Amino acid sequence: MTLSQRRRRAAFAGTAAIAAALVLSSCSGGGAPSTGGEFTGEYDGPEVTLSFWNGFTGGDGPFMQQMVDRFNEEHDNITVESNTMQWADFYQRLPAAVTAGEGPDVGVMHFDQLGSNAARQVILPLDDMVDDLGLDAADFTETVWDAGVYADQRYGIPLDIHSLAMYYNTEHFEAAGITEVPTDAESFAAALDALQAAGYDTPFWVPARWPGHLMFMTLDWQFGGEPYAADGSAASFADDSGVEALEWMRSIIDDGYSPSDVAIDAQYVAFKNGETSITWDGIWQFNDLEESGLPYAGVPVPNIGGEAATWASSHQFFLPRQDDADRMNAAKVFIAWMSEHSEDWAGAAMIPARQSVLEAGALEGMPQEPIAAALDDMRFTPTVPGLGTVQAETLELAVADGVLGAGDPGDVLAEAEGRATQLMQENLATFAE
To answer: What percent of the chain has pLDDT over 70?
Structure first.
C-alpha cells in the first residue's frame, strides 16, 4: 500500500459517517431477498459478465487483478470485470447503487462494514453457499470466521487477515547491541533505552491519529479490556485497561522516546527514511518497505499489557441484493474460487484467511510469515452496524487528545465512552426499525 493509500485509509474515518448515513437511508426494497436458488458449487448457465467492486487501489490492486484474470482464464462462461475505487467512495456508493439496481454482482469489503449493509439488506446472507461448499470454522481462525456473521447469519466469506505488526530497523538494533527482539513491556523499554544510548534520540514515534487508535485497541486488549460489547450495545474502552493503554502511549512521549505531536503518516515516513528505529503499523506496509531498501524486519507487536493480543481486520467477499439467479450463482462460483486460490493474495502482503491455504505454504518466504504465527492472538471489533462511524467520532478523538496531552487519559476516555454508548444505542434502535 502506497503512502497516498495510507492517507486515504486514514481519511476514511472522516468519511465513514457519510457512508453510514447512506446505508441508514437505503430502503430494503421490500420482501425477502433472493439468494439465487439452489447452488451446486458449479455454474453451467448462459455466459455472464459480473461486475466486481473492490477498493484495492494501491499496491494490492495488481495482485487482485491477477487473481481475477486467472479466474477468467479458467471459466469460459463467466467473465469478471473489476470496478476498483477508493474505499470511502465504495462505501458511499454501494447502498444507493444496490437500491437503484445499479450495484455490483459481487464485491469485497472490510468486515466492519458488513453489519450496516446486512441490516439494510444491501447484501445477502451466504449460509446456503457455505453449506453447499462445506466451508466451516475448521478452515479459519475463530475470530475471522465469526467476523463475517451478523444477527446469526453469515454475510461475509473471509479472504484475508491483516493486522498491526512491529517493524524495526535491523541496523539500528545492531548498533544498539540489541540481539533479541523485544516481546514484552520490559524488553521493549530496554530496547528503547539502548537505542537512545546508541544515538537514536526518538526511536519510537507515537501518532495521535491513524494508526494511534489501532495501537490503543491492541493495548486495551493486552491489558485485559474489551473496547465494545459484543452485541453493540455499549462502549467499554474507558475502564482500567483502557486507561492503562492510553497512559502507556502517552508515557512514550513523556519519557522522551517520541515527539509530542506526530501527524498522520509521519511516524511511518520517519521509519522508512531511517530516522526512527521502531514503528507499529499494518502489514500492508511490507511491500512498500521491501521496495525501499531499508534494512528492516517485521514481527508481532510486543505484549505490553500481559495478554497476547493485536488489532486485526479482514477483507470479506459479499453478495449484494439482486434478482438474477444466474448472475448470483456465477458470483458464488467466483467467491468460492477466490477463497480456494487465496495463496496468490499473499503477494499483497496479506495473510490468507484459510488455514488450508496457509498450511500449503502460501506464506513461505513472505515478509508477513512471522506475523501469521500470532494469528490466534488477533482480535476484531464486533460486527455491528455503524460501529466504524461511532469509533471515528469518539474513541479516535479521545486517543488523540490523550496522546497529545490535551486531557487526562481517564477523563477523555470516559467522556468518549459515554458518547459512544449513546450513539451505539441509537444505532441499535435505528437498525431495528
So the answer is: 90
| Residue 428 burial (CB count, 10 A) | 17
Reduced to 3 DSSP states, what percent helix, strand and coil does the chain have, rounded to the nearest 5?
50, 15, 35
Q: Are residues 277 and 413 in the same domain?
A: yes
Residue 178 has pLDDT above 80, yes or no: yes
The 10 Å CB-count burial string (b at 16+, else e) for 104-139 is: bbbbbbbbbbbbbbbbbbbbbbbebbbeebebeeeb
H helices of 261-349, where? 266-272, 286-292, 325-340
What pLDDT, on a 0 to 100 scale, did the predictor assign at position 431? 84
Evaluate if residue 390 carries a pLDDT over 60. Answer: yes
Same domain, 125 and 143: yes
372 found inside a domain: no
CATH number for the domain including 44?
A: 3.40.190.10
Same domain, 189 and 219: yes
Indicate whether 423 belongs to any domain. Answer: yes
Which residue segment(s) compose the domain that 272 sits in? 164-312+385-432
Residues 101-124 have a mean pLDDT of: 96
List pLDDT tens digits, range 124-146.
Answer: 999 988 888 788 889 999 999 99
User: In the predicted model, what is the mean pLDDT of residues 217-225?
Assistant: 98
**Total length of the chain:** 433
Asked if residue 367 is part of any domain, the answer here is no
Based on the domain organization, do 147 and 195 belong to the same domain?
Answer: no
Work out how many domains the chain is built from and give that number. Answer: 2
pLDDT at 136 (0 to 100): 84
pLDDT, position 132: 81
* Domain membership flag for residue 377: no
Would you say 227 and 395 are in contact if contact means Cβ atoms under 8 Å apart?
yes
Residue 112 region by backbone torsions, left for phi larger than 0, else alpha for psi between -120 and 50, else beta: alpha
Question: And the C-alpha cell for 300?
Answer: 508481532
| AA identity, residue 309 | A
**Kind of pairing between the strands at 310-313 and 153-154:** unpaired
